[in-house]
Amino acid sequence: MSHAAELPVWAALLTSLLLLVGAGLTLLGAVGVLQFRSFFERVHAPTLGTSWGTGAIALASIVFFSSLGTRLVVHEVLIGVFITVTTPVTLMLLARAALHRERAEENPNVPSRAVMRRRGSAPAPEDGAGDAAGTPSS
Amino acid sequence: MTAAILLWSVSIAQAMLVIAMGCNAYRLIRGPRAQDRVLCLDAMYVIAMLLILTMGIRTGSAIYFEAALIIAVLGFASSVALAKFLMRGEVIE
C-alpha cells in the first residue's frame, strides 16, 4: 500500500470507517440469511448489504480516490444507484415466484389467493397462476 | 501511519466480506428450496462486487471499478432470469 502514504490522515480514517461499516453490514445480512427460519424472512436479510453495505463501500472508494488524485471522482455513484434500483426489482420478483410456488403446492403457511382478495388487496392477475378455487396442476 | 491504518481496515473488511460470502455459500448448498439458492446467488454477486471494490482501494488502481460495474449488471440480469424461471418454468408446466 505504498500509494496510500501521501493520503491525508482524515481521508484514511474516513475511508477505514466507511469500509468497516459497509463490510460489517454485509456480514450482518449474511448471518441473517444463515439464521432466519423461513424464506420470507430470509429474503429481507441481504438488503442490508445492498443498501448501506454497497453505499458505504462506494463512498469509501469515492473518498479514497478523490483524496488521492486531488480531484473529485464520483463514478462509484453509478454502482450505488444501480444496485439500489435493481435490488427491489429482483427481490420482489423472487418473492412473488416463491409465493406462487408455495400456493401451487397448497402450503398452509402462506395466505391463499382468496384470502388476499377478501382483504381488499387483490393481486394483479398472472398468466397461468390458477384461479381462486385453486386447482393447481401437479 | 495512514498506510498502516488503511491496510488494516481493508484487510478486516475483506475478511468480513469473505465470511459473509461463506455464510451465503453454506445457505446456497444447504438451502431447502430453489428460491433460497437464487436469493443466496444474488447476495453473493453483490458481495463479490464489494470485494472487488475493496480490492481496488487496496491496490489503488481504478481498473477494478469497471469489473465491479459489470458484475453488478450481470448479477441483476441472471437473478431476474432465475426468478422468472422459478415463476414459469418448473411448477406449472
TrEMBL record, chain A:
<protein>
    <submittedName>
        <fullName>Multicomponent K+:H+ antiporter subunit G</fullName>
    </submittedName>
</protein>
<keyword id="KW-0812">Transmembrane</keyword>
<dbReference type="GO" id="GO:0015385">
    <property type="term" value="F:sodium:proton antiporter activity"/>
</dbReference>
<feature type="transmembrane region" description="Helical">
    <location>
        <begin position="12"/>
        <end position="34"/>
    </location>
</feature>
<feature type="region of interest" description="Disordered">
    <location>
        <begin position="102"/>
        <end position="138"/>
    </location>
</feature>
<feature type="transmembrane region" description="Helical">
    <location>
        <begin position="46"/>
        <end position="65"/>
    </location>
</feature>
<keyword id="KW-1133">Transmembrane helix</keyword>
<feature type="transmembrane region" description="Helical">
    <location>
        <begin position="77"/>
        <end position="99"/>
    </location>
</feature>
<dbReference type="InterPro" id="IPR005133">
    <property type="entry name" value="PhaG_MnhG_YufB"/>
</dbReference>
<feature type="compositionally biased region" description="Low complexity">
    <location>
        <begin position="121"/>
        <end position="138"/>
    </location>
</feature>
<keyword id="KW-0472">Membrane</keyword>
<dbReference type="Pfam" id="PF03334">
    <property type="entry name" value="PhaG_MnhG_YufB"/>
</dbReference>
TrEMBL record, chain B:
<keyword id="KW-0472">Membrane</keyword>
<dbReference type="GO" id="GO:0015385">
    <property type="term" value="F:sodium:proton antiporter activity"/>
</dbReference>
<feature type="transmembrane region" description="Helical">
    <location>
        <begin position="63"/>
        <end position="87"/>
    </location>
</feature>
<dbReference type="GO" id="GO:0005886">
    <property type="term" value="C:plasma membrane"/>
</dbReference>
<protein>
    <submittedName>
        <fullName>Multicomponent K+:H+ antiporter subunit F</fullName>
    </submittedName>
</protein>
<keyword id="KW-1003">Cell membrane</keyword>
<dbReference type="Pfam" id="PF04066">
    <property type="entry name" value="MrpF_PhaF"/>
</dbReference>
<comment type="similarity">
    <text>Belongs to the CPA3 antiporters (TC 2.A.63) subunit F family.</text>
</comment>
<keyword id="KW-0050">Antiport</keyword>
<keyword id="KW-0812">Transmembrane</keyword>
<dbReference type="InterPro" id="IPR007208">
    <property type="entry name" value="MrpF/PhaF-like"/>
</dbReference>
<keyword id="KW-1133">Transmembrane helix</keyword>
<feature type="transmembrane region" description="Helical">
    <location>
        <begin position="38"/>
        <end position="57"/>
    </location>
</feature>
<keyword id="KW-0406">Ion transport</keyword>
<keyword id="KW-0813">Transport</keyword>
<feature type="transmembrane region" description="Helical">
    <location>
        <begin position="6"/>
        <end position="26"/>
    </location>
</feature>
